[in-house]
Design goal:
By secondary structure, this protein is mostly beta strands. The protein contains five helices and 31 strands. It is elongated and about 105 Å long.
């Protein structure tokens, strides 16, 4: 039993990330379409939906009468509990990710809410409109505008749709705070030549990210890299190409065919390269130590005794000269690549082991150091091997998949240098 003050730490499952965040500018194959005449635009396709060539997108109404009729039809739609839940989820997502330093996200939030309501009210609206007009005998004048290409529709423009990768310099990123993002779904009349929608014609998109020389060197030999979008903590794999821009600065171009629709209305995104991070069991560095173990080939470990537990047939190295082999049960065995690793509290150098299948003998002598910690769930010190995935100056992330290793909520000893295996923690 030890009377010294011992500090215990509870293992938790988490992520350590020491990566620096970068701001990337988003590039897509996108085309902005303008109004052919003055009038009121009545949309029928929610933002983020895929449209086909010839599909009706909106009606252009010069007088506003169509807009009024459509508003009356929309007010008759009933909203279900499921619809309310959808809108509530949009609100909760915004609240969970709100950052006061990014006030422009408020406009994205308003756009998302409006689009959620739009999705609930528009299905079948054009058909209902035709029925109302036919029944009333009304001959209102309007123009039907259809899609010229297949793509994903958006009603958000920012004036940077034509930006190309080779045009990007450090000055590009100074525009983030002053970007003129416009939401096109309004009740106001538009003038001829004003933008009315945007079409993204390819699922592949990219981000150009200004990086430091240090990150340039670290990314030099990579073709893919895992990144995290900070706004919603989404991580995914992207292709990467690095180089210098026309301004002589270093840039990384990240390309993906995933999540384009998720970020279709974003021009700038904050990201992390997951180079200095890992997920797993978090433990303090000062709980880790190395311990010598005897290496025993698996052929010398057998079942026996009264409990069918694993053990070895061995003679003692006590100098008596006894040649009788007795079964010695082994606890807390560590197995790796055909060998068992046994504590020196059970086996000793010079012990002779027997392979009962072949009759071969092995004199215990070979040792290896294993890194681990002392687990104290039951009050005694039990060595648990660790497989380190990542560490910084204070903590390490270790695998939760190590056989007979640590688990979440285990209790381990900090600064175990004065303790031995099986010591009791008072």
């Amino acid at each position: 039993m030890t009377k010294n003050h011992i500090t215990i730490y509870e293992v938790n499952n988490t992520k350590i990330s020491d990566d620096v965040s970068f701001t990337g500018v988003v590039l897509r194959k996108e085309e902005v379409y303008n109004a052919p005449d003055d009038g009121y635009v009545n949309y029928f396709i929610p933002s983020g939906n895929r449209v086909g060539v010839g599909q009706l997108l909106y009606l252009l109404d010069s007088s506003g009468s169509i807009s009024s009729t459509i508003s009356d039809l929309e007010s008759q739609n009933e909203v279900s509990e499921e619809d309310i839940t959808h809108i509530r989820d949009t609100i909760n997502t915004y609240q969970a990710n709100y950052d006061s330093s990014h006030f422009n996200e408020v406009y994205n939030y308003m756009y998302d809410i409006n689009n959620s309501v739009f999705e609930l009210t528009k299905p079948g609206l054009y058909s209902d409109l035709n029925k109302v007009l036919s029944k009333s005998g009304n001959t209102l004048s309007y123009t039907k505008e259809k899609a010229f290409k297949t793509g994903i529709i958006s009603y958000c423009v920012d004036g940077m749709e034509s930006l190309k990768a080779n045009q990007i310099t450090r000055a590009t990123f100074q525009k983030e705070s002053s970007i003129n993002k416009k939401q096109l779904q309004t009740a106001q009349a538009v003038h001829k030549g004003n933008p009315v929608y945007k079409l993204v014609t390819d699922d592949e998109w990219s981000m150009v990210v200004p990086i430091s020389k240090d990150y340039f060197d670290r990314l030099a030999n990579k073709k893919t890299v895992n990144i995290t979008i900070q706004r919603d903590n989404l991580s995914f794999l992207v292709s990467i190409a690095i180089g210098q821009g026309s301004d002589g600065e270093y840039y990384a171009t990240l390309t993906s065919s995933r999540y384009m629709q998720r970020y279709i209305n974003d021009r700038f995104l904050e990201i992390e390269f997951n180079l200095n991070s890992a997920s797993g069991l978090k433990i303090p560095n000062n709980s880790i130590f190395s311990k010598d173990f005897y290496v025993v080939p698996e052929a010398y470990v057998t079942k026996g005794g009264n409990s069918n537990n694993s053990g070895v047939l061995k003679t003692n190295s006590d100098g008596t000269g006894s040649s009788e082999f007795k079964f010695e049960e082994l606890s807390n065995l560590i197995y790796m690549k055909g060998n068992y690793y046994v504590s020196n509290s059970v086996l000793h150098g010079g012990d002779t082991l027997l392979d009962k299948t072949t009759g071969q003998k092995l004199v215990v002598s070979n040792t290896e150091k294993l890194k681990g910690v002392y687990q104290t769930n039951d009050g005694t010190c039990t060595f648990k091997r660790i497989e380190e995935l990542y560490h910084n100056s204070e903590y390490a992330i270790v695998s939760a998949q190590t056989a007979n290793g640590l688990s979440e909520y285990d209790h381990i000893v900090i600064n175990p240098s004065k303790l031995q295996e099986d010591d009791f923690i008072k």
